[in-house]
Write a structure and sequence with these properties.
Number of strands: 45
Structural class: alpha+beta
Strand content: 5-15%
Helix content: 40-55%
Number of helices: 62
Shape: extended
Length: 1986
C-alpha cells in the first residue's frame, strides 16, 4: 500500500534508473527528486527538472537529504536544508554543465575562434575546482576561518563562470544568495552595484611586493665562490630604497644551500605605488671570494678576500609589462676602473659606456622576478606554498607609506661610504679592508647582530670588500644592525682597518680603527646622516678587546673640542652614513623632554609648544605615552596649562587624520576605552571647547578654531569617557551640572550655526567644518543621554541652520553631507529617534531635490532612509512604518519622479567619470522609487489619489508616473546581467499599474475621456510586455522555473489588463485605430500562447469599429501590413502565431456582415506572414545566398503584385541587390536594380534622401542607376544588355548637349563591343529542381524551378550544392512526376536533372558568319523554355535494329520569367509532354550532324580552327559509323516496304530522311576535300582511310553519283568562308518571304543549331568518332550516336579519349553515385548525362499543317539541313494592377507598346522543310493561350542583345535530387536551339495585317527589320519607349568583297513549293503603321519621393 511520505521528501539519485517497470520513472545520476509516496522499497515521486512526469523508482537508488517543506499538502514545495552556498553551487553547476556541452559542440563542429576553445577548457577546470571545494564544505571538517576562505573562493569562481557564460549577476551577502523579497530594493541595488564594481573595477592595491628567486650565474670564468646582493634603487634620488638581499653561490654559480629556499628567495615588501616607476631599479652587486687578482696563480696563502666581480640592473617598470612567469637573464657588467665600483650601477643606469663593459660575452644572471600586489596577509593566503616553502623578507629602508600600529621594528642601517688613508711608508697605495664589530656596554662583541642583508643569518663580524692599491677607497656598502632596543644604550660599533698584503704570506695588517656610539647620554640615538669618523692609528698587534681604552677618545670630527687641532688636521678619515628605523627609539630631544616633564617642570611650556613641530612618525611611536603626559599635566595644572594641553590634544587628533597615520585611530580608541584615566578632564575640555565656540563669531582668524572643531569627535570621546569614569568613581555626582554644561555647549553651537554670513566668510567655513564632524558625536552622546534626548539635540542643532538656501553656498552641500551621516548613524536606526528626525531630514532633502542640487548626496540619503523601511507583518511597529511611508510619499514621491525624469532626459556629460556618476545616481533614485512604491499599501494609494484636488493634477501625475515607468524598463537602465533587479522593477510596476488603472477608469472615461493619459497607459503596457527580460522562452529551464514560481508570467497579467481596459473604452476605441494596431501587433507576436489568445481578438474589435465608422477597414489592413514586415524582421512571430492569428480571427468574424472582406484581409496578412517567416528564417539561420535570394524574390513579388506597397517593394529590391552582389551574381544584380530604375523617369522631379541615396533629382538618380547597372552587366559579362543602357544614356546626354559625357558613354559602348568579340564567356548549365513535401518553405513547397548554374558547375556539383543547402532533404532517384503522397509528406524531397535551353533568337543563331562569341550569348540568355528528353521503346523491341521502336518522350518547361533575370532560378509555369517518333528522331540526328559538319568545315576554311583535329574526328566519326552500319540501320528501319505501307502518312518524312542522307554524303565529300587541303603530313594515312571508307559508305547508300538537283549548281564560299553567301549567293535570303513561319500553337519544335561553346569543339568532334556507331545491338548503343555538346571549355578540354568513352559499357557510364540495383529501366528512369539523348538525335519534327513553304533557295549555297522551328503556345502573363510597369492587354490587331523593339542587322533565315507533327501526349497547362499579344506574323528579327522576358519572380533555392553523371553528353538537355521567332497566323489573321513588305531585299540593303517579341516583364531591359535612330549594320556583320569561290560539288536539289509571302505587322512607331498604342498611365505613387 502506498503511504504518503512524512520526512522522506527530498533525495539525490545515486545511480541511473531506466524505468523499464510499469509506471517506472527514468532517472539520471545526479537528478534531484521529490518523494510523494512509499511502498515496500519503492518511492513514487518526480524529478525536479520535469515535475509533470511522475512515476516509481527503487529506494536504494536515492540518497535522502534533509529538507524544509512549504505549503504542506498538494502544492507543497520542498527546499533542501543545506548551506545556501551548496545549493547555489549545485544549481549553477547543472546550468553550466549544459552550456559546457554546447561549448564543446561549437568548438569541435564549427571550429570557432580560439577563445571559445579556451573557455571550454577553463570552464572545465573551474567546474572541477568547485566540485572539490564543494566536497570540502560537505565533509564539514573545516575551521571557521578556513570555511570562510573556501566559500569566498567558491563564490569568486561562480561569479567568474557566470560572467564568462553571460549569466545573471547574483546578489550575495556573506557568500549567500539574497532573496530580493527579504530586503529593500535600495539594499538590493547596493548589493548589485557593489558586486558589479568588485567585478569591473577592482580597487588598485596600494602596497606592492617584489618576489626574487636567485637561480644561477652563468659565466665562463668562474671557479671562486660568489656573493650576490640585491637591492632596490631609486635612480631619481640616487639612493637605495631597501635593504640588501644576500645569496651565496658556490664555484659553479648556483646557490650553496639549494635545500633552503629562504636563502635564495626573498620578498621585497612594502613598495608604494610611487615606487613602481621607470627610474626605480633592481640593482645586483656580485662579489667573488678569492685571491686579490682574478688571474693570479695559486699560492700557498689561504687567505681570501672579497673582491668586486660584476653588476646587473633591471628596471621595475619592465616587470609590469613582461610575463611574470618568465625567468630573466640579466647582463652582468664589470668596472673599467676598479675605483668606480661604488657607482657602477649609476653608470649602467645613465649608460656611461666608457666606465663599464660586459663581464665576458656569455655571462648572465638567471633570476625569477615577479611583482605581487596587496597587503602581506593577503599574499600569505593567496601564495600559501610560497610562504610555507620558505622565503626571506627584505624590508624597505624606513617605514612604509602606511604605518600599522603594533609594528615592531628596530633596525640600524650603516653604509660604509669612503675612506682617506696615507701610504704609511709604502711605495704603493694600500689594499684596505674594514672589519666591523658591534659591542655592548660591557665591551663584549654582540653575537649575530651584524648582517650583510636578508637571506643569510647575521654574524659577529663583517668584512668589507677590498679595492686594490687604493688609498681613497669608496665602498658604498650597506650593513644592517638589528640590535634590540634594550641593548642600544652603551653600545658602540668599531671599525678596524687592515692592509691586505699580496705577498706570499697574504697577511692582513691592522693599522687603525674608528668607532661610533649608538646612543647619546640623553637617550637620543645616533642621528641619521653622514658621519666623518676619526681614524685612530694603532700598531699591528694592538689589543682592542678592552674597549674602555679608546671609548673616551673622540670618535667624530664633528664632536671634537675646538682646541684639539692635532686630530682635526689629520688626513686620514672614514665616512659612514647611518639610518635608524625604529618604532621605540627616537632621535628627537623635544619628544624626550615632553615625556620626562616631571624631571624638568620648567620645560613644560616649551615642550608643549614644540610638540607641534615634532615629526608625526615620532609622535605616533609614543602615542600612549604622549597622551598620558598631556592628561597628567592637565590634571595637575589645569588652570595654567589647560589651553595648551587642549591645543596639543587637538594637534594629535588632527595628526591621525593623515592617511599615513589613520591606522592609529584604533590605537587612540583603545587608549580611550582602556587606558585613559582623566576622570576630571571633562570639565576642562567642555570649558575650553565652549570658549572656542563662543569666540567663533568675533575671531578674525578661524584657522585654529576650525582645527579645534575638526577634532570634535575625539574631544567628545574624551569628555564622555571622562564623565563616565567620574560617575563610576563618585556614584553619579554632578549629573545635572554635566547636563547643564552640555546644554550650554549646544546652545553656543546653535547660536554660531544660526548666523547668516557671506559665502566667502570664514565663519561659514567654520560652520561647514563643524557640520562635517557633528554626526560622529551622536554615538558618544548616546552613551550618557537617552535616544530622544540625543535626537532632540540633533533636531534643534540642524534646525538652527539658516533657512535661506543659496545654490552657490558651499554650506548647502555640507548640510546635505551632515544629513546623510545622520541618516546612516546608529541614532537614526531607532524608531523613536527616526520619528523626531524624519521631518527635518525630509525638509532639507525636498528643498535640494526640487532645485536639482547635490543629487548624488540626495540619492545616498534617500537610499539609506528607505533601506530602513521594510515590510512588516501585523506587528506593533506596522503603524509606525506606515506613518513613515506616508510622510515620505507626501514629501518626496512627486519630486522623486520629477528628478528621475530630469536626470534621464539631461544630455550626458562628457567624460567617463561624469557618465558613471550620472548612471549611478539614476540607478539609486530608481531603486528609491521602487522601494517606496513597494512599501505602499492600498491605503497609501487611496490617500495619494485622493490628495489630488483637481483632475488636471491627477492627469499630470498619471502621465508623469507612466513616463517614469517607461524609463525604468529601458534596456540601458540596468546592466545586462542585472536580471534580478529588472524582475523586481517589473513586479513593482505591474502592481502599481493595477492600482492606477482603477483611477484611470473612474476619472478619465466617458465624458471625461482623456486620450493622452490612455495612450500613455497603452504605450507603457506594450513596452512592458515586450521587455527582453520578461521573455521567459529565452531562459534556461531552471531560470524560467524560478521566475514563474516567484513572479508568474507578468506578460500575461499585463495582457489581461490591456484587454480589460480596451473593453472599457467603448466608442472611444476609435481614437486608437489605427494608432495602436502596431503596438498591439507587437504584443501578439510575443511567443506566449495565453497572451496571444487574449490579445488577438482585439484586432477583430478594431476591424468591427473601423467598419462601423468607415464602411471598411482599409486602415487596419494597411497598418497591419506595414508593421508586420519590421516586426518579423526583428525576429518576432513564428509559424504557430500565423496559424493562431488565422484561426482566431476567422472564428471571430464568422457571424459578421463584413465576413467576406474580413476573410480577404486575414488571408492577405497570413500569406505575408508566410513569406516574411521564410525570409527571416533564411537570414537568421545564416542560410546560403541561394535560399536568401529566393525568399527575397518571393517577398518582393508579393509586395508588388498583391499589396502594391511601393516603398517596401523598393527596399526589398535593394536587399536582393545586395545579396546578389555578395554572391557575385552580377548579372542578376543588374536585373534587380533595373526594377527600381524603371520606376523612375527622365525628369527633374526632386527626390528625398532614401536608403543610401542622397537628395537629388529623379534624372540624377536614374543616371546613377544606369551607370551602376552597366557596371554590373560588365562584371557579369552580359555586355549586350549593357550596350542598350549605354545607348539610352547617350540619347539623354545628346538631348542635353552634354557631349563630354556622351563621348564617355560612346567609348564605354565601344569597349563593351570589344569585350564581346575579345573575351571568352562560359555557357552555363541549366537544371530543373523540384521541391516536394511540407517541410519546405512556402515559396518552394511543391513547386518546380529551372536554375541557371554557376560557371564550371556540372550536375554532380549542383546536386551536392542543393543537398548542402537542404541537408534534411531526400534525393529522388527518378524523373517521374511525384504523387500526392510525396506532396503531402512531412519531409523534404528533391528531384533534380539537367535540362536544355531553347533559345528564342533563332535568326541570329542560324545566320552564317556570325562569330561564336556573339552566338554564345543568345544560346543561354533570354530563355523562357527548356527541354528534357527521355528515350523509351514502344511496342516490340527489335533486337536487330532498335531504331524501329525507339521513341523519345520530350518534356517542355515554360518559366514565369526568362533566365537570366532577377534570380538564378524561376518557377515553371507550364509543362508539356510530347512523344517523338523513331523516324522524326532519325531526322533530328542527321540534321544536327549535318549542321555540325557545316560549322566545322566553315571554321576550317576561315582559319578559325587552330588545328584540324576536330574536323578529322568528326569526319571519322560519321564516315566510320556509316560504314559500320549507322545510316544503313535507318535504311533498314524506315526505307523498307513494310514501314512505308504501314505508315503512309510518313511518306514526306521518309523523303526528308533520304534527302538528309544524300545531303550528308555531299557535305562529307566537300569536307574531305577541305580536309585534304589542310591535313598535316603525319595524318595523310588517316585521310586516305577516310576517303576509302567514304566510297564504301556511298556505295552502301546506293549513291554512284549525286542526283541532278544536287549537281545543279556549285556551292561557293567566299574566301573559303560561308559568310559571303549571305550576300552574294542568295539575294532573297533576307527577304521576309524567305522566312520560316511557324504556328505558335504547335506542340513540337525543331532545333536549329547545336549549342556548342566555341571552346569545346575538339571534344565534341572527338566524341563523334566513337559515339556514332551503326553496329549497336541495343538501344544503349544507339544512344551514343548523338554528338556530345559540352557547355564548358573545362570539361571539353579534359574530356575522355574517344576510345575510352565508347568502349565503356553503359552501366559504367552512369552516375557514380547511383548503384545498379537502384537504377530503373531506361524507359522510366533518369539517365546519366552521357546516356540521355540530346536534341541532336531526337529533334522535333514539324506538323506539315503548320509548316509553310518558303521560296526556293538559290543553287549557290552549301546544302543545309535546317529544321523548321516552332514554339509551343505560351501563356500570356497575367498582369497585376501594378501601376508602374504593368502592360494592358490590347486587341489582337495591335501591338503592346511596352514590348521592346530593338534594331539589329538583318539575319538571313534558313529554309524550312516540311514534316509531320509528333503526337502530343498531354499538356501540363490546362488552357494553352498565346503568350504574345499579337497574332500577326512578322519578318524574321534578331532580338536585342539584352532581351529579357519575365512575367513573374521566382526564387533560387538550389537543391539536389538524384545523382547523375556530368558526362560528355546529356540526353536531358536539348543542345539545339529552338526558334520562337516568326509565327504563322491562324484563322482570319490576314484581316488584321498591316502593310506588306517587299518579297526580297537587296543584299546590300541596310534596312533594319523590326520584330515584336514576347511581352517582357515590367523590369525587362527591352522596355524602352524612347524612339531610336536606325543603326547601321555593324562592321562585324558587313559583307566582304566578292572573291571567286573554289569549285565545289553540286548541291542536291530539293523540290520547294512557291514561297509564302509574309505580310509583317506594322511597327507601331512607323508613320504608316497601326496607330501607336499609348502606354498605360501608372497609378499615383504612394511614396512620391522615392
Amino acid at each position: 500500500m502506498w503511504i504518503p511520505t512524512e520526512h522522506e521528501k527530498y533525495g539525490v539519485v545515486l545511480a541511473s534508473f531506466r524505468g523499464t517497470v510499469q509506471h517506472g520513472l527514468p532517472l539520471e545520476i545526479g537528478d534531484t527528486v521529490q518523494l510523494l509516496e512509499k511502498c515496500e522499497g519503492w518511492y513514487r515521486g518526480f524529478v525536479h527538472k520535469n515535475p509533470n512526469a511522475k512515476g516509481i523508482f527503487p529506494c536504494t537508488y536515492i540518497h535522502l537529504k534533509n529538507a524544509h517543506i512549504k505549503n504542506k499538502g498538494q502544492f507543497e514545495t520542498v527546499i533542501p536544508t543545506e548551506d545556501s552556498v551548496i545549493t547555489e553551487m549545485t544549481s549553477t553547476l547543472r546550468d553550466w554543465g549544459a552550456m559546457w556541452k554546447r561549448l564543446y559542440v561549437v568548438k569541435t563542429v564549427q571550429h570557432t575562434h580560439k577563445n571559445d576553445g579556451d573557455l571550454f577548457h577553463r570552464l572545465w577546470h573551474v567546474m572541477n575546482e568547485i566540485l572539490d571545494l564543494r566536497r570540502q564544505v560537505l565533509v564539514g571538517h573545516l575551521t571557521n576561518d578556513r570555511m570562510k576562505d573556501v566559500k569566498q573562493h567558491i563564490t569568486a569562481r561562480l561569479d567568474w563562470g557566470n560572467e564568462q557564460l553571460s549569466l545573471d549577476l547574483v546578489p550575495r551577502r556573506e557568500f549567500s544568495m539574497v532573496d530580493p523579497d527579504e530586503i529593500s530594493v535600495t539594499e538590493l541595488f547596493k548589493l548589485m552595484e557593489h558586486r558589479h564594481r568588485k567585478k569591473e573595477t577592482p580597487v588598485p592595491a596600494s602596497t606592492h611586493h617584489l618576489f626574487v628567486h636567485m637561480k644561477s650565474l652563468m659565466s665562463s670564468n668562474l671557479g671562486e665562490e660568489l656573493e650576490v646582493f640585491f637591492h632596490i634603487y631609486d635612480g631619481r634620488e640616487n639612493r637605495p630604497l631597501s635593504e640588501r638581499f644576500f645569496v651565496r653561490l658556490n664555484k659553479n654559480g648556483v646557490p650553496k644551500s639549494p635545500e633552503k629556499t629562504e636563502r635564495q628567495c626573498t620578498l621585497f615588501v612594502d613598495l608604494g605605488s610611487s615606487d613602481l616607476r621607470k627610474d626605480v631599479y633592481i640593482v645586483v652587486h656580485i662579489m667573488r671570494i678569492g685571491r686579490m687578482g682574478a688571474g693570479e696563480k695559486k699560492n700557498l696563502c689561504s687567505i681570501q678576500y672579497r673582491r668586486p666581480f660584476g653588476c646587473a640592473v633591471v628596471s621595475i617598470a619592465d616587470l609590469l609589462t613582461a610575463d611574470s612567469k618568465d625567468d630573466h637573464l640579466l647582463k652582468v657588467y664589470a668596472c673599467t676602473t676598479e675605483s668606480e665600483w661604488y657607482q657602477i650601477h649609476e653608470n649602467i643606469i645613465r649608460k656611461v659606456n666608457s666606465r663599464y663593459n660586459l663581464s665576458g660575452s656569455n655571462t648572465g644572471l638567471a633570476v625569477s622576478l615577479q611583482l605581487l600586489h596587496g597587503d602581506i596577509e593577503q599574499l600569505r593566503r593567496e601564495y600559501m606554498v610560497l610562504f610555507t616553502r620558505g622565503v626571506s623578507i627584505t624590508k624597505k629602508l624606513g617605514f612604509s607609506d602606511i604605518i600599522m600600529p603594533g609594528e615592531m621594528r628596530n633596525d640600524l642601517y650603516m653604509t660604509l661610504e669612503k675612506g682617506e688613508f696615507e701610504k704609511g711608508g709604502k711605495s704603493v697605495a694600500r689594499n684596505v679592508e674594514i672589519t666591523v664589530y658591534v659591542l655592548d656596554i660591557q665591551g663584549q662583541v654582540m653575537k649575530s647582530y651584524v648582517a650583510a642583508g636578508s637571506g643569510e643569518p647575521g654574524g659577529d663580524v663583517y668584512h668589507s670588500f677590498v679595492l686594490y692599491h687604493n688609498n681613497s677607497p669608496r665602498w658604498a656598502e650597506q650593513i644592517k644592525l638589528p640590535i634590540p632596543v634594550d641593548m642600544f644604550r652603551g653600545s658602540h660599533v668599531r671599525f678596524e682597518f687592515r692592509h691586505c698584503s699580496t705577498k706570499d704570506k697574504g697577511e692582513k695588517k691592522l693599522f687603525g680603527y674608528s668607532f661610533v656610539h649608538l646612543m647619546q647620554e640623553d637617550g637620543r640615538t645616533l642621528p641619521d646622516g653622514t658621519h666623518e669618523l676619526i681614524i685612530h692609528k694603532c700598531e699591528e698587534n694592538a689589543n682592542l678587546q678592552d674597549s674602555s681604552c679608546y671609548l673616551k677618545l673622540p670618535f667624530s670630527k664633528a664632536n671634537l673640542p675646538g682646541n684639539n687641532q692635532a686630530v682635526k688636521g689629520t688626513k686620514e678619515c672614514f665616512w659612514i652614513t647611518s639610518f635608524l628605523c625604529s618604532t621605540k627609539l627616537t632621535q628627537n630631544g623635544d619628544m624626550l623632554d615632553l615625556l620626562k616633564w616631571r624631571a624638568h617642570p620648567e620645560r613644560i611650556n616649551d615642550s608643549l609648544l614644540k610638540l607641534k613641530e615634532i615629526d608625526g612618525s615620532e609622535i605616533v611611536k609614543f602615542l600612549q605615552d604622549t597622551l598620558d603626559t598631556l592628561f597628567g599635566i592637565l590634571d595637575e595644572s589645569s588652570q595654567r596649562y589647560g589651553l595648551k594641553v587642549f591645543d596639543c590634544l587637538v594637534h594629535i587628533i588632527n595628526l591621525l587624520q593623515d592617511s599615513k597615520f589613520h591606522h592609529f585611530k584604533p590605537v587612540m580608541d583603545t587608549y580611550i576605552e582602556s587606558h585613559f584615566a582623566g576622570a576630571l578632564s571633562y570639565r576642562d575640555l567642555i570649558k575650553v571647547l565652549k570658549w572656542y565656540v563662543d569666540r567663533i563669531i568675533d575671531a578674525e582668524h578661524q584657522d585654529h578654531i576650525q582645527q579645534v572643531l575638526n577634532a570634535t569627535e575625539y574631544i567628545f570621546k574624551y569628555i564622555i569617557q571622562s564623565r563616565r569614569l567620574f560617575a563610576l568613581a563618585t556614584g553619579g555626582q554632578s549629573e545635572e551640572e554635566f547636563r547643564c554644561c552640555v546644554h550650554e555647549l549646544f546652545m553656543s553651537i546653535r547660536f554660531f550655526l544660526s548666523q547668516e554670513n557671506k559665502i566667502t566668510s570664514p565663519v561659514t567655513q567654520t560652520q561647514a567644518v563643524f557640520l562635517r564632524t557633528f554626526p560622529a558625536v551622536y554615538g558618544e552622546l548616546l552613551k550618557i543621554f537617552t535616544v530622544r534626548e540625543v535626537a532632540g539635540f540633533v533636531r534643534e542643532t540642524l534646525g538652527s541652520l539658516p533657512a535661506t538656501a543659496r545654490a552657490e553656498c558651499p554650506l548647502e552641500s555640507v548640510k546635505l553631507h551632515c544629513i546623510a551621516k545622520t541618516v546612516e548613524s546608529q541614532l537614526y536606526t531607532n524608531t523613536e529617534s527616526r520619528c523626531i528626525l524624519l521631518p527635518v531630514v525630509l525638509r532639507l532633502l525636498q528643498a535640494h531635490m526640487q532645485e536639482q542640487r547635490d543629487l548624488v548626496m540626495c540619492a545616498r540619503i534617500l537610499t539609506s532612509m528607505l533601506s530602513l523601511v521594510r515590510k512588516y507583518d501585523s506587528t506593533a511597529t506596522e503603524p509606525v512604518v506606515s506613518e513613515e511611508v506616508d510622510l515620505i510619499v507626501d514629501s518626496l514621491l512627486v519630486v522623486l519622479m520629477r528628478t528621475i525624469l530630469e536626470i534621464t532626459n539631461r544630455p550626458q556629460a562628457a567624460g567617463t567619470n561624469m557618465r558613471l556618476q550620472f548612471q549611478d545616481i539614476t540607478g539609486e533614485f530608481v531603486a528609491c522609487l521602487l522601494a517606496l512604491l513597494r512599501q505602499m499599501s492600498d491605503k497609501h494609494y487611496q490617500q495619494l489619489l485622493q490628495a489630488f484636488t483637481s483632475k488636471d493634477d491627477l492627469r499630470d501625475f498619471l502621465l508623469q508616473i507612466f513616463t517614469v515607468f517607461r524609463i525604468l524598463i529601458r534596456p540601458e537602465m540596468f546592466l545586462k546581467d542585472w536580471t534580478v533587479m529588472r524582475l523586481v522593477t517589473n513586479n513593482v510596476i505591474i502592481t502599481t499599474v493595477l492600482y492606477l488603472s482603477d483611477a484611470l477608469r473612474k476619472n478619465f472615461l466617458n465624458d471625461k475621456f482623456d486620450y493622452k493619459v490612455w495612450d500613455s497607459y497603452f504605450y507603457l503596457s506594450v513596452i512592458f510586455i515586450n521587455q527582453p527580460c520578461l521573455q521567459l522562452e529565452s531562459f534556461s529551464p531552471s531560470k524560467r522555473k524560478r521566475v514563474l514560481e516567484k513572479y508568474g508570467d507578468m506578460r500575461v497579467m499585463m495582457g489581461c489588463e490591456i484587454f480589460s481596459m480596451w473593453q472599457n473604452l467603448g466608442e472611444h476605441k476609435l481614437n486608437f485605430i489605427p494608432a495602436m494596431i502596431g503596438p498591439f501587433l507587437e504584443v501578439t507576436l510575443v511567443p506566449q500562447p495565453d497572451l496571444r489568445n487574449v490579445m488577438i481578438p482585439i484586432f477583430h474589435d478594431m476591424m468591427d469599429w473601423e467598419q462601423r465608422r468607415s464602411g471598411n477597414f482599409k486602415q487596419v489592413e494597411a497598418k497591419l501590413i506595414d508593421k508586420l514586415d519590421g516586426l518579423m524582421s526583428e525576429g518576432k512571430g513564428d509559424e504557430t502565431y500565423r496559424e493562431l492569428f488565422n484561426s482566431i480571427l476567422l472564428k471571430k468574424i464568422e457571424r459578421e456582415t463584413w465576413r467576406e472582406s474580413g476573410v480577404s484581409l486575414i488571408a492577405t496578412v497570413t500569406r505575408l506572414m508566410e513569406r516574411l517567416l521564410d525570409y527571416r528564417d533564411c537570414v537568421k539561420l545564416g542560410e546560403v545566398d541561394g535560399k536568401k535570394i529566393g525568399c527575397t524574390v518571393s517577398l518582393l513579388n508579393f509586395y508588388k503584385t498583391e499589396l502594391n506597397k511601393e516603398e517596401m517593394y523598393i527596399r526589398y529590391i535593394h536587399k536582393l541587390y545586395e545579396l546578389h552582389l555578395k554572391a557575385q551574381n552580377y548579372t542578376e544584380a543588374s536585373y534587380t536594380l533595373l526594377l527600381y530604375d524603371e520606376l523612375l523617369e527622365w525628369s527633374e522631379r526632386p527626390l528625398r534622401e532614401f536608403l543610401n541615396y542622397p537628395m537629388q533629382s529623379e534624372w540624377q538618380r536614374k543616371e546613377y542607376l544606369h551607370l551602376t547597372i552597366v557596371q554590373n552587366f560588365d562584371r557579369g559579362k552580359c555586355w549586350e544588355n549593357g550596350i542598350i543602357l549605354c545607348r539610352e544614356l547617350a540619347d539623354q546626354y545628346e538631348s542635353y548637349y552634354d557631349y563630354r559625357n556622351l563621348s564617355k558613354m560612346r567609348m564605354m559602348e565601344a569597349s563593351l563591343y570589344d569585350k564581346i568579340m575579345d573575351q571568352q564567356r562560359l555557357e552555363p548549365e541549366f537544371f530543373r529542381v523540384g521541391f516536394y513535401g511540407k517541410k519546405f518553405p512556402f515559396f518552394l513547397r511543391n513547386k518546380e524551378f529551372v536554375c541557371r548554374g554557376h560557371d564550371y558547375e556540372r550536375l554532380e556539383a549542383f546536386q551536392q550544392r542543393m543537398l548542402n543547402e537542404f541537408p534534411h532533404a531526400i534525393a529522388m532517384q527518378h524523373v517521374n512526376q511525384p504523387d500526392q503522397t510525396i506532396y503531402q509528406a512531412e519531409a523534404q524531397y528533391l528531384q533534380i536533372y539537367a535540362v536544355s535551353p531553347i533559345p528564342e533568337s533563332q535568326d541570329v543563331l542560324q545566320r552564317d558568319g556570325v562569330p561564336d562569341n556573339i552566338k554564345s550569348f543568345y544560346k543561354v540568355n533570354h530563355i523562357w523554355r527548356f527541354r528534357y528528353d527521355r528515350p523509351f521503346h514502344k511496342g516490340t523491341k527489335d533486337k536487330e535494329n532498335e531504331f524501329k521502336s525507339l521513341w523519345v518522350e520530350r518534356t517542355s518547361l515554360t518559366l514565369v520569367q526568362s533566365l537570366p533575370g532577377i534570380s538564378r532560378w524561376f518557377e515553371v509555369e507550364k509543362r508539356e509532354l510530347v512523344e517523338v517518333s523513331p523516324l522524326e528522331n532519325a531526322i533530328e540526328v542527321i540534321e544536327n550532324k549535318n549542321l555540325q559538319l557545316r560549322m566545322l568545315i566553315a571554321q576550317c576554311q576561315s582559319r578559325q580552327m587552330q588545328n584540324i583535329n576536330p574536323l578529322t574526328m568528326c569526319l571519322n566519326g560519321v564516315i566510320d559509323a556509316a560504314v559500320n552500319g549507322g545510316l544503313a540501320r535507318y535504311q533498314e528501319a524506315f526505307f523498307v516496304k513494310d514501314y512505308i505501307v504501314n505508315h503512309p502518312e510518313d511518306g514526306e518524312k521518309i523523303g526528308r530522311l533520304r534527302e538528309l542522307m544524300f545531303e550528308q554524303a555531299h557535305i562529307l565529300e566537300y569536307g574531305l576535300a577541305v580536309h585534304e587541303k589542310f591535313v598535316p603530313q603525319d595524318m595523310r594515312p588517316l585521310h586516305k582511310k577516310l576517303v576509302d571508307q567514304f566510297h564504301v559508305m556511298k556505295s552502301s547508300l546506293g549513291i554512284q553519283e549525286f542526283p541532278a538537283y544536287v549537281r545543279a549548281s556549285p556551292v561557293h564560299f567566299t574566301n573559303g568562308s560561308p559568310r559571303s553567301s549571305c550576300r552574294n549567293s542568295v539575294p532573297n535570303i533576307i527577304s521576309p518571304d524567305g522566312a520560316r513561319v511557324v504556328a505558335r500553337r504547335s506542340p513540337l519544335t525543331y532545333p536549329a543549331v547545336n549549342r556548342y561553346s566555341s571552346s569545346s569543339l575538339s571534344s565534341q568532334a572527338s566524341n563523334e568518332v566513337s559515339n556514332i556507331t551503326g553496329q549497336s545491338e541495343s538501344s544503349d548503343e544507339v544512344f551514343n550516336m548523338q554528338p556530345s555538346p559540352s557547355t564548358s571549355s573545362l570539361s571539353s578540354n579534359h574530356s575522355a579519349s574517344p576510345n575510352v568513352t565508347s568502349s565503356a559499357p553503359s552501366s559504367t557510364r552512369g552516375s557514380p553515385q547511383l548503384q545498379d540495383k537502384h537504377k530503373h529501366s531506361r524507359e522510366n528512369s533518369c539517365l546519366s548525362s552521357r546516356e540521355r539523348p540530346v536534341s541532336a538525335i531526337y529533334p522535333n519534327p514539324l506538323d506539315p499543317a503548320q509548316r509553310t513553304t518558303p521560296h526556293q533557295i538559290g543553287d549557290t549555297t552549301l546544302p543545309r539541313s535546317d529544321p523548321n522551328l516552332s514554339a509551343p503556345d505560351k501563356v500570356r502573363p497575367t498582369f497585376s494592377s501594378w501601376s508602374l510597369d504593368s502592360v494592358k492587354e490590347v486587341n489582337n490587331t495591335q501591338f503592346s507598346d511596352t514590348v521592346g523593339k530593338l534594331l539589329c542587322p538583318p539575319v538571313p533565315p534558313r529554309p524550312p522543310y516540311p514534316g509531320s507533327s509528333a503526337k502530343t501526349i498531354r499538356s501540363q497547362s490546362p488552357v494553352p493561350t498565346s503568350r504574345s499579344p499579337q497574332k500577326s506574323s512578322l519578318p524574321p528579327f534578331t532580338p536585342s542583345p539584352t532581351e529579357c522576358q519575365s512575367a513573374g519572380l521566382v526564387s533560387n533555392s538550389p537543391v539536389l535530387s538524384g545523382s547523375y553523371s556530368s558526362g560528355i553528353s546529356s540526353m536531358s538537355r536539348c543542345s539545339v536551339s529552338e526558334a520562337s521567332g516568326t509565327e504563322a497566323t491562324t484563322g482570319d489573321h490576314a484581316a488584321h495585317q498591316g502593310p506588306t513588305m517587299p518579297n526580297s531585299v537587296s543584299s546590300g540593303s541596310d534596312e533594319l527589320i523590326r520584330r515584336e517579341n514576347k511581352t517582357p516583364p515590367p523590369y525587362s531591359v527591352y522596355e524602352r519607349t524612347n524612339p531610336r535612330r536606325p543603326v547601321p549594320l555593324p562592321h562585324s556583320l558587313s559583307i566582304p568583297p566578292s572573291v571567286d569561290p573554289p569549285a565545289l560539288p553540286p548541291k542536291p536539289h530539293q523540290q520547294r513549293t512557291s514561297s509564302m509571302k509574309l505580310v509583317p505587322a506594322s511597327d507601331p512607331r512607323r508613320a504608316d503603321g497601326v496607330p501607336h498604342v499609348p502606354r498605360p498611365r501608372p497609378l499615383p505613387r504612394k511614396v512620391s519621393q522615392l
